[in-house]
Amino acid sequence: MVIEAKLASHTESLPDVVLGQLAEYARTVWTEQPTRIFVPVILLHGANMTLFVFARSGYYRVEMGTYLFTNAVRPQYKALAIMRFLQKLWFLIIQPPDRFGHFADVSIDYKSLRFLGSVLDSKVEVAGSGKTLDVKLGDRIARDVPLIRRTAYLIKATYCNKPVVLKYSWTPVDRLPEGAVYRVLELHEVSCLPKIYSSGILVKNFFGYRLEYLLMEDCGESAESHFFRTPGPLASLDQINSTCVAIADVINRTVSCLAEAAKAGVLHRDISTGNITICNGQVRVIDWGYAKLTQPDAPEIKDIADEWGFDLGNVTKNEIIHDGMTGTPLFMSIRVLLGRSTRSVIDDIESLFYVAMYALSHLSEGPSASSAFKVQDNNTAAYVKLGLVIRRKSYLKIFGVKECSDEVRAQLDLLYQLLFCRNGQFIGEELAEEEAEVRVVDTSIMRKIIGSGLADRIYGSQDDDSSAMPAGENDTPAVKASAKRKTRAAKTRKPAPKKPKPAPKKQKPAPKKPKPADN
Asked: Most buried pick, 47, 104, 162, 275, via CB within 10 A?
């Protein structure tokens, strides 16, 4: 417990500078202690003691009382006030860790945890026996831990003699649990996902936030760490070729995963270099905590909502609200950067396009040399990206990419056609101006990227292929937008003037037959 002392007494309002200092203490404690539900901070100010409880949704203030008195106060009042103060303080001191700030008893130095119970009623115990099914904890994975909003802790561990990652996530109760997303994807056998060994809810609702845990396979290093191990512009030819082979594999497998997930009714919404991993040549798409369900009426979705204890209607509505603000800014699609209110799998694939550009640029002058990967406001970033993709033949050069294999170039050209063209024409103006998604999933292009076998399972056989499918939303905004444009064009088109009918030709009278001569 953090204790801060101030000479001045703040019995009513607390100065912002003091509150900020207390909040910084709480953030530091929260960062270092993943088992924290809330952080208590005691403030001694003047002759008063105040308890501040910092939770994800805000802070709560409890007056403990006054522990010092002047001679002007009557003795009986002194004794009564001090007794009440000591009662509150004693109650505070004797609380065990799992009742006052932690979700497990961490009063001893623990090295293993044991997770028990069902998804909606999960519990965790400190384990000391070292059994195979216990989770043996290792090092923390460095990650920023904000005091408010969604946050996560990642800890390397061992489970059943296998390397795993233990993830604790604090999520607003009106948002989608990540474990529920993995359950949907698992039911539909989506590829390139981490294996989930265990998951559940540890805290159902603490002032508007839930705490869930995921125990998943260790997926290796992030795509950024993997690609940036090469020495950039100084890379040898073998290193460049190896990097290009890995990038080609990442593009193929990630597009396949996103297409399968969209078929299952899930959009990732946060594709970045940190959420694609590579381990022993295996590509994994991770961190589905910002995902969105596009088919909430499916029977299995309702069952999963009951299993995980969330209000499906409320969560669906809130995820739609967050469509225009969810993602990693450097890799957001142009439409998302512009705050468009609809989201589709095309936006996820566009984020992957920028991930590939980011990795390739490292082989040249580095991402920092490209205007696409400079930190700037969303609106500016959107129009910068539009400018970078405006030229079909030279977009790689404009992005600062100098080294690229023929295989990767072919894949990127296919993505470029899918994302920024229609019938061979650049559609940047429509991307910037139209509110609805103007793009569709061109299945003929997708077949070339992911292969005919997988494409047949997702889009149907090639004989039934219409070559253009909605981008992933139930209301098919791309089809509606296209129909509106055709309707407007039809209304404004003037009918062609009718040609006048030619006048009928006058018929010459037939010559009269001569009369026979009289004999």
From this structure: 275
